[in-house]
Structures are given as structure tokens and as C-alpha cells.
Design goal:
The protein is of the alpha+beta class. The protein has one domain. The protein contains 4 helices and 3 strands. Helix 2 packs across helix 3.
Length: 95
């Protein structure tokens, strides 16, 4: 189940257009701007057999990987990376 949740989560985030770490939003390719938990629910709605906790864990892991979606100018990449790291830390209860 763990690996299935990982694969499905990684496939799902291919539909993330960009992140807004200041407002803590995930912007999907259909234009929906969802909170992190709403994004977990979005993925879980399509795969009710998966535990929401596993989807959440893998989505946090995706944030921590630092492979940010969208075209981010190189001069903004460091700042964006710091904001996303802080967001992931917050979701993990760190800081």
C-alpha cells in the first residue's frame, strides 16, 4: 500500500502547475488553488482505497524533494526553495 500511495501521489503531482508557498497553496493545472490538505483530499478522492495519511506523507516528501513545478527564474529559485522547505517543515511539525 505504501508504494502504491507513493506512485499515485507522484503521478498526481505531475498535474501541479506551480506552488504558492507564501499562501501555502498548490495550484493545479485546472486552475484550482488548494491548500495542502485540500490537495491531499483531491488525490484521495480518486483513490479511496489509499490511506489519506500515506498520501499526505508522500505529498510532504514531494515538497521536500525540491523539484518545484513551473518556470521559476533562477534568481528566484533559492528564495522559492527556502519557502517550500519552511512549508514542508511546518507540515512536519518542525519549527
Amino acid at each position: 500500500m505504501y508504494e502504491a500511495a507513493r506512485e499515485i501521489t507522484l503521478q498526481s503531482v505531475e498535474h501541479v502547475e506551480r506552488l504558492d508557498p507564501i499562501n501555502r497553496k498548490v495550484i493545479w493545472d485546472d486552475g484550482k488553488q488548494l491548500s495542502f490538505d485540500e490537495s491531499v483530499q483531491r488525490i484521495g478522492a480518486s483513490y479511496p482505497e489509499l490511506l489519506v495519511e500515506l498520501i499526505r506523507s508522500h505529498l510532504v516528501g514531494w515538497l521536500e524533494m525540491g523539484e518545484l513545478p513551473g518556470d521559476i527564474p533562477s534568481e528566484q529559485m533559492d528564495e522559492m526553495d527556502e519557502l517550500v522547505t519552511a512549508w514542508a517543515d511546518e507540515l512536519n511539525g518542525i519549527g
